[in-house]
Amino acid sequence: MNGCLEIPIIGEDDPFIWNVWVSLSPNNFFKVIDLWDEPTRIDLDSMFGWLSTELPIYPDTINLKTNVHMRAVGIRPLIELEPTNHPLAMEQRNGITRLRVDDIFRLIERNG
Fold first, then answer.
1. What SS3 state is found at 54?
2. Is the pLDDT of residue 112 over 70?
3. Bridge partners, residue 19, by sequence
4. What distances in angstroms separate CA 34 from CA 17, 22, 87, 107, one per listed residue?
5. pTM here?
6. What is the pLDDT of residue 110?
7. Where are the domains of the chain?
8. 43 Cβ neighbours under 8 A, 6+ residues apart
9. Burial (CB count within 10 angstroms: exposed 0-12, middle 13-18, buried 19+), residue 76
């Protein structure tokens, strides 16, 4: 499943967003598929998943534990990382500066 891993930018209203893939259990995956176009999907409990996207500017991100939170129809699910000491999880919890956002863009350009 595709979703948004949002990182707050300190002092700004809009977050930095990584568009990521998360694997869900078959039961949760089919539950999401069945309710994808239904407004009631926001009533689903959060679902455990495994991050399935490698973000090369961080140490290994594959298989970080996540919680998937459904949002209104037309808005991708919110991906919340388990609160660990992984740098990506720490940034999601604590937020990042505008300078860090600029660094991320430079690192992405450099890593292709």
1. coil
2. no
3. 4
4. 26, 17, 34, 38
5. 0.94
6. 82
7. 2-111
8. none
9. middle
